[in-house]
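Entry 14. Structure prediction run on the chain below.
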Amino acid sequence: MSTEFVVNVTVDDVKKDKGSTYKGDFSYEQTSGTPDIIDSKGNIDLKDVSGEADITFQWGSPEVTIDGQDYAASYYYGDQTGLNIIIAEGKDSDPRTKGKNPPLSGDDEFTVDMAPTPADFTLKDKNSDLKKYAYCMAAYVNVPGGGQIIDDPKIYNRPD
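Output returned:
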């Protein structure tokens, strides 16, 4: 049995980073589930959760302002749902690079359910390995040519 959590995610002050990537001030607010597992920066700590955790992230910024222009923003959905989150092992890893701690692939500690709408998606964490992870949260922004807004919080799992 898994413990279910819901987290509202918003972003303000969005600015171009490089290429089609944007950064912003992300805020995370846990709206259901106990115990509290997420801080305002998006860092997840599951040490007090027994067993698996299903974390539903709800997108709360359907429009973002970039350089004075408003653009639609949402999570990826359908067969692109997996683009919403990339996870790498090691608290100091960068899930966007292929360096010392490259993104996980084929790992069964984490799965992402296919989302039917761009409003939310669910991350399933087996929470069984006492490892630390970094994750990259991404959302689509409808700028000309398309782009994504990213954030890089951490995940701390408990032992089996």
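The first strand starts at residue 2 and ends at 18.
Filed with the rest of this week's runs.
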